[in-house]
Amino acid sequence: MDFEGKESLNFQITWTLYTLIFMAISSFLVLTSLNLGVTTNGSVNEIEITIDRLLIVFMSLILLMLIVQLFIVAFAAIKAYNGEHSRYPLTIRVMQ
To answer: Are 79 and 88 in contact, with CB atoms under 8 Å apart?
Structure first.
């Protein structure tokens, strides 16, 4: 049980880190495109369409990340219930 708890905590810490990095990158891209639209004297409609499209793409990716996390955690929980050890993919092992 100790192994499963540490593995789950490592996964949650890693997934939080990945989410924060993704949010920082997406915020940078949205602000950069907004800045680019303003400095090139783009019309308000063009800037609004660009920002809306970027936000839809980023929100879709965040939703996809949440769905993937749900499936990974559910799969690991089922394996733990059956008494099997499972390793989460793409996890940084903070706790050993």
So the answer is: no
> CA nearest 58: which of 33, 39, 81?
33
Q: Which helix (H) or strand (E) holds 64?
A: helix 44-81
CB 12 within 8 A of CB 70: no
**Token pair belonging to 24:** 């920082």
Give the torsion sign (CA, 51, 54, 60, 61).
negative
Predicted TM-score of the model (pTM): 0.74
Q: What is the pLDDT of residues 48-95, one digit of tens each?
A: 787 788 888 888 888 998 899 899 999 988 988 898 888 888 888 887
